[in-house]
Amino acid sequence: MKNEKELRRQTIIEIAAREFAEKGYDNSNINEIATMSGIGKGTIYLYFKTKKELYLATMQTVVDLFNESSKNVLNLEVTPLEKLKVCMELLFRFEEEGLPFLILWSRYQFQNNPDFQDEVHALFKDLEQPFCNIVKQGVKEGTFNTPYPEEAGYLILSMVTMLIPSLQAKPLLENVSKEEKVEFLVNLIQNGLSCKAIN
Amino acid sequence: MKNEKELRRQTIIEIAAREFAEKGYDNSNINEIATMSGIGKGTIYLYFKTKKELYLATMQTVVDLFNESSKNVLNLEVTPLEKLKVCMELLFRFEEEGLPFLILWSRYQFQNNPDFQDEVHALFKDLEQPFCNIVKQGVKEGTFNTPYPEEAGYLILSMVTMLIPSLQAKPLLENVSKEEKVEFLVNLIQNGLSCKAIN
Amino acid sequence: MKNEKELRRQTIIEIAAREFAEKGYDNSNINEIATMSGIGKGTIYLYFKTKKELYLATMQTVVDLFNESSKNVLNLEVTPLEKLKVCMELLFRFEEEGLPFLILWSRYQFQNNPDFQDEVHALFKDLEQPFCNIVKQGVKEGTFNTPYPEEAGYLILSMVTMLIPSLQAKPLLENVSKEEKVEFLVNLIQNGLSCKAIN
Amino acid sequence: MKNEKELRRQTIIEIAAREFAEKGYDNSNINEIATMSGIGKGTIYLYFKTKKELYLATMQTVVDLFNESSKNVLNLEVTPLEKLKVCMELLFRFEEEGLPFLILWSRYQFQNNPDFQDEVHALFKDLEQPFCNIVKQGVKEGTFNTPYPEEAGYLILSMVTMLIPSLQAKPLLENVSKEEKVEFLVNLIQNGLSCKAIN
DNA sequence: AATGAATGAGGTTTCATTCAT
DNA sequence: GATGAATGAAACCTCATTCAT
Per residue in A155-184, is it b (16+ CB within 10 Å) or e — as a string? Predict the structure, then answer.
């Protein structure tokens, strides 16, 4: 019973995520979400009081999925750099396993997305930022050295995102393997751009 | 005469940019844009055939402003690193001098913004990416060393953007001076995160 | 179920016919049609995608009503002249039983009505012209004698229409009974204006 | 001076007639009429206070043109039948010499045209109906024999109109010469459809 | 519980008309 | 006198939401 309700709720959210990701909030259509979910329009409203609530539930799922995914990285018994790699790979994997949610995440994380900013912001308060944690941890352990660890974490996040083609207007390194991307990024983080001349 | 028309056109675009940046395309209201521009609703339609056209004209202005701003950097007679600095400062300055346009730029540059993707994409084909050019130039001159110069340019861009508080859901280094941010970034680019332990 | 939908569709069309007949297409108002139908504005759009489509559906109904009405005349076992009479009476009767549809019919049949000419023309391709058929039949049987039977049919049609007061700017024979009108017309068709002098 | 003003007024009316005939009142556009007249939009309003007034002036011109055209027929020293012929030819000639005005005339004369019915009706009060006059005269002289001379005039009018292809949804006798049409009509008026069998 | 027919607020767009130049 | 830029009322249409079945 309860499971079935919960399952249907998830189905709706998944379809909604596809719509919201593809068309944005305003151009997404409750009717179409219902049809594509294989249920009646009125039924949507048994699960979500309003379109806005459905949107927020979808964004909550974004947060949950990301937290779920990054949950165990911090406790891995590996070097901070290894953790960074694992974390990057996790993010890259989202492109295949949950693109709509990835798009919604990025739209909020990096864009001044105007859809219910306050409410979404409140949800994202709970979003773990593993890159930040790793860098902070690394700094504590003496592995990394930066005056702004938290910010460094966000910078890494933004760089990884940059290399996810589906999220970019101009796709970058489309045909490069994830391993190479990770290597590229790690190298960059380790050595900067190697400005010998200035050193 | 003609100047006056062009001036009014610019006024409308500026107000529109504010609206689009704040509320997004769909929730922006031609009526309100007219009122805030101090002109009649119908007048908007003398300058722009449709709301969509106004939006695209606004996005074209975004491209123009950014190109205008970065035009002369590449030809400066300074080291690539200095150029990077100048370029970063330019970007930071947008926050004060043209925030709505900066927001619209970022919304397209980093978000999968679904509003007229194809048309906006076509406009952004003409957008210069000075960071990319500088890195490429630096690689040629031997100052920088990276297998993916273009991509490195975009990564720098995304990092600078990360440090512009107005563009971030969670503002970073809000009270840090631009000079320090530039220094932070340049240092990062030069030395990575100084992972001595791994070296 | 289905019947109820169909019934409501017919109701809308009837109200719409009244509006279109009275005010013309452009000055008819979906809102008002809705109100007069006792339903909401949006409901109209459940039955007809656009105002134009409602108009065309109304014109289709015109064709259907006229065809329905004239269906059985041709097969009557009476002389062509008798058929003409029956047919005239049918037309006269429309004034009382479906004036709006009669007006819309005449507006298209005799006026260069500019509302969606091509589309309406396509609909009227299916409109039976019983007067034409009767004259053709009569010519074949030797009852009538005219070089242009089809055209003669249309001429009769136009004459009958002329004697329907509701369709004329200057009402003719307003207080004359239909029987007398029919007699007048039949006499004219049989004998013309009896120009003895010229004979 | 005055002549020039009057001339320009006529030009506007002619262009307006074309627009009104082609698109109907509501879909005709003052701006377009101005442009096609080669004058400014505001200038139209120096000649006609409103669009409606321009329309009514155009319809007044219709009446004037028709009256002008039929003025001298009644006084011709020929038989009523000959007068009918001349009158028919006059009407046929309108198709080539003033089609827009002919269309506007027919739209009002035979259709329940809803554009300013009362006002247009008032104008048409002054419209001569030569066919009616001729028949009445013919009846007086004993040439014609009909209980409803006025109505017979209108019937003839409607028949002639039927044979003007530009006025009909389904053009009739498109490739038949006017002379033959006149002959056809005159014969019909004289002898009807020659129902020998019934005689 | 599930449905989808019905609703009407709200926003874009057109165009007759005005008026400052 | 002539102009056309500016205006805003009005109408079509969409779609989130409700509710009777």
Answer: bbbbbbbbbbeebbbeebbeebebeebbeb
d(CA D189, CA C191): 8
Within 7 Å: CB of C147 and strand E?
A: no
Q: Hey, what amino acid is at A13?
A: I
Question: Tokens in use for A104?
Answer: 């919604």
D116's tokens: 């300013």
Q: What gap in Å lies between CA B160 and CA A158, rounded to an integer?
A: 10
Q: Which residues of chain D does C101 touch, with a Cβ-Cβ cutoff of 8 Å?
A: none
> Residue-wise over B167-190: b if at least 16 C-beta within 10 A, else e?
bbbeebbeebebeebbebbbbbbb
Query: CA–CA separation, C56 vs B12, rounded Å?
Result: 41
**Residues of C in Cβ contact (< 8 Å) with D21:** 112
> To the nearest 5 percent, what fractions of chain A are helix, strand and coil?
70, 0, 30
DSSP-H helix ranges across chain D:
2-27, 30-37, 41-47, 51-70, 80-97, 99-110, 117-124, 130-141, 149-162, 178-191
Of the CATH numbers 1.10.940.10, 1.10.357.10, 3.40.50.150, 2.40.10.10, which one belongs to the domain with range A2-191?
1.10.357.10
Cβ within 8 Å of D, C 20-39:
21-27
Domain edges within chain A: 2-191
Give the nucleotide nearest to B47 (CA→C1'): F5
Topology (CATH level 3) of domain D59-191: Tetracycline Repressor; domain 2 (1.10.357)
- Kindly report the pTM of this predicted structure: 0.92
Q: Which fold has domain B56-191?
A: Tetracycline Repressor; domain 2 (1.10.357)
pLDDT in tens, chain C (199 residues): 567 889 999 999 999 999 999 999 999 999 999 999 999 999 999 999 999 999 999 999 999 999 999 888 878 889 989 999 999 999 999 999 999 999 999 999 987 899 999 999 999 999 999 999 999 999 998 888 899 999 999 999 999 999 999 999 888 999 899 999 999 999 999 887 665 444 3
Chain C residues with beta carbon closer than 8 angstroms to that of D188? 146, 152, 155, 192
In DSSP notation, C105-141 reads HHHHHHS---TTHHHHHHHHTT---HHHHHHHHHHHH
Q: How many CB pairs under 8 A join A and B?
A: 184
Kindly state whether A199 is in contact with chain B, defined as any CB-CB distance less than 8 angstroms. yes
Q: Is D81 on the interface with C (CB under 8 A)?
A: yes
Give residue for tokens 């038949």.
D176
